[in-house]
Amino acid sequence: MQLIGMLDSPYVRRVAVSLQLLDLPFEHRSLSVFSTYAQFREINPVVKAPTLICDDGTQLIDSTLILEYAESLTVGRRSLMPADPAMRLRVLRIVGLALAACEKTVQIVYERHLRPAEKYHEPWITRVTEQLFAAYGALEVEYAHQTAPVVEDQAAISTAVAWYFTRQMLPELLDASRYPRLQALSDYAEALAPFRAAPFGSEVYPVK
Questions:
Q1: Residue 118 reports pLDDT greater than 80
Q2: Helices then strands (H, E): number in the chain?
């Protein structure tokens, strides 16, 4: 399989980390939807990261759909999603919050750096920022009773990737001291081999 997209995208990175934890080998091509747009378009005309090229040539887009497919390849061997309905529901809730945080971070970054200054809309930024804070506030509550950080399911992977992404892109916006559980989870995750092999940025997996 080939994973197309840069690891500075939280969506690409959560797939790269997850594929490793599922023991699914893949080749990574670090293409940007901006700087290498034409090259990316030759592979996938939709130019959406991540794109996964499956062994039979089928292209999948959207990190959640890609991971659903990946899980189907490891049925009976390994899963990052709990089988118990109640536990699975909690993981899905956390993943949803983490993806919302990623989405709001991207919206703020795009508003600041891609929209012309004369079209900059402060009320929109205020609203999106409130949504970002709400997502991370809810995630902090979800991990409030965890005695030590653990990365063993998709909830922890997505949360850790999202938090690190926002801290890198909007360092002045989030006070890490207000989210000690999320910061602890991030610190723990970034030290793990699957995260180190797919670090945030423009490098190509696997990084030794």
A1: no
A2: 8, 4
- Neighbouring CB atoms inside 10 A of 125's CB total 15
Assess if CATH 1.20.1050.10 describes domain 85-192. yes
What pTM value is reported for the model?
A: 0.96
Q: For the chain, state the CA radius of gyration.
A: 17
Query: pLDDT digit string (tens) for 181-196?
Result: 999 999 999 999 999 9
Per-residue pLDDT of 38-88, as tens digits, reads 999 999 999 999 999 999 999 999 999 999 999 999 999 999 999 999 999
Tokens describing residue 61: 């887009």
How far is the CA of 103 from the CAs of 96, 117, 129, 153, in angstroms?
Answer: 10, 21, 11, 21
3-class secondary structure for 9-33?
A: CHHHHHHHHHHHHCCCCCEEECCCC
> Residue 63: how many CB atoms within 10 A of its CB?
25
The class of domain 2-79 in CATH terms is: alpha beta
- Closest alpha carbon to 1 in 22, 11, 9, 10: 22
